[in-house]
User: Fold Ras-related protein Rab7 from Trapa incisa.
Amino acid sequence: MPSRRRTLLKVIILGDSGVGKTSLMNQYVNKKFSNQYKATIGADFLTKEVQIEDRLFTLQIWDTAGQERFQSLGVAFYRGADCCVLVYDVNVLKSFDNLNNWREEFLIQASPSDPENFPFVVIGNKVDVDGGNSRVVSEKKARAWCTSKGNIPYFETSAKEGLNVEDAFICIAKNALKTGEEEEIYLPDTIDVGTTSQPRSTGCC
Assistant:
C-alpha cells in the first residue's frame, strides 16, 4: 500500500480489558456507543482529523487488547507514539491499581527519548454506572496518583453518554503535539468496535 505524507499524531490507549478503551475511541471518532462488549484482539486503530492552532493533524488512535496475552505487542506497535492514554474503570479497583503496570510496560516497550517528560493522559471511565453508586476509586485518589507521576492530566468520562470524551481527546491531541513530528506512514484498513463506559472530567494541558 502506498504511503501518504501527512502530519500524524500517534496515540496509544492502554488499560485492563473491559475498561472501555474501544468505546472511548468509538465515541470520540464515530460518536457511537455499543452495549455489546466485544474484546479487541491484538490491536486496532481509528483515525480522526483534528485542528490545533490552525493546523490540521491526523490523530491515529491505537486501541489495545487488555488481556495479558496481548500485552507484549512488540516494539513496532509502541514505536513512534506521541502520547499514551491510560484508562481504568472507576468501579473496578484492580483496573486502577494496574495503571502503573501499563505505564511501565509502555515506557519499556516504547523507549521514548525523554521518558521523564513523555506525555500521558489518564482517564477514569464509566462514571455513569449505577448513578455513580458502584464507584470504588475516588477522584481524589486518582488525582493523587496522577500528581505523583508528574502531574498527568486526568479526566473522568462516560463513553456511553459521551461525557468529557471530546475534552479528554482534545487534551490528548495537544499533548501528543508536544512530541509529534511529520512522518511518512502507512494507513492499513482496519477498524473495530467494542465495550461500555461513562464520565466526568477535570484538568488538562
Observations:
- The chain has one domain: 4-202.
- The first helix runs from residue 21 to 30.
